[in-house]
Amino acid sequence: MTSSDLPEPVEETAAVPAATEHLSVKRFETTFSGPLPPPSDLAAYGQISPDLVERIVTASEQEREHRHRMDLEQSRRDSYGLVAGFAVAVLFLLVAAWLINGGREVAGVILGTVDLVALTAVFVLGRHSDDP
User: I need a surface site. Which of 23, 47, 105, 119 has the fewest CB within 10 A?
Assistant: First the structure.
């Protein structure tokens, strides 16, 4: 290869500063908690449709009533569970006493002990639930 085959050298130029652009992004976010949006949002909904605000408020009231009914039903179910658990525990103790009285002391003592240990475990450890 000869020097005539090589490309011409490029003259060095002064460094040109790169043009910079600044881009700003502003983000506005509003949040609310509760069954109803803020009054300003409700007013905006009212401008879209006159009956929209009333429908939103009615839906919120119905949701509240439904939630109260569900909470009451859950409370009743919990109470029934406590009563049923107590009845089973008393029944086991009565059967244990009957077995002991009938001459089967070992079986009665084992049944009574298991019953009392189970009751104690429930009260000491408590009831673990996945409910929030």
Answer: 23
pTM over 0.90: no
Amino acid at 44: A
Side-chain-side CA neighbours of residue 74 (13 Å): 7
Number of structural domains in the chain: 1
Distances (CA, A) of 83 to 14, 71, 91, 96: 91, 19, 12, 20
What is the model's pLDDT at position 63? 92
4 located within any domain: no
Does residue 7 belong to any structural domain of this protein? no
At residue 71, the pLDDT reads: 94
Q: At a CB cut-off of 8 Å and minimum separation 6, what does 107 contact?
A: 99
The domain in which residue 58 lies consists of 39-125
**Where would I find the H helices in the chain?**
39-48, 52-101, 105-125
CA distance 96 to 88: 12
Task: Indicate whether 44 belongs to any domain.
Answer: yes
Whole-angstrom distance, CA of residue 13 vs CA of residue 128: 76
